[in-house]
Design a protein that fits this description.
By secondary structure, the protein is mainly alpha-helical. Helix content is about 90%, strand content about 0%. The chain contains 5 helices and no strands. Helix 2 (about 20-30) runs antiparallel to helix 5 and helix 3 (about 35-55) runs antiparallel to helix 4. The protein is elongated, with a radius of gyration of 22 Å.
Length: about 120
């Protein structure tokens, strides 16, 4: 008889070995090696945060400038094929995890409902 921990280990191994997860991890690794990307992504987030801060303290011109700089960096990042590939692989991996989670939830609900009859 398999225990909860055995089942969890099998499920975790199956998820880690699934082609969509493997593909996501590979493209994530490629992306992490692009230091230029990480710097631009960090700077974009900083500009977005600055824009929000400037809006809160009524510095509209500074907020607009920060928003524009953030958008420029976002456009640069979005146009790179690796980014597009990353998003696609991430969506596939996310879909798999959502499917597994929904299946487990449905099975648990079924077992709980059947047990109360």
């Amino acid at each position: 008889m398999t225990t909860y921990h055995d089942s969890l280990s099998h499920l975790t191994a199956a998820i880690h070995g699934h082609p969509s997860i493997v593909a996501y991890k590979e493209v994530q690794q490629q992306l992490s090696q692009l230091t230029n990307f990480e710097q631009k992504a960090y700077q974009m987030k900083r500009y977005q945060q600055d824009a929000q801060l400037f809006q809160k303290i009524a510095k509209e011109q500074a907020a607009v400038m920060s928003e524009n700089k953030a958008r420029e960096l976002e456009e640069i990042l979005n146009c790179q094929p690796l980014i597009e590939d990353y998003r696609e692989k991430m969506q596939n991996a996310s879909d798999l995890i959502q499917y597994i989670t929904k299946s487990i939830e449905d099975q648990l609900n079924k077992e709980l409902t059947d047990g109360k009859s």
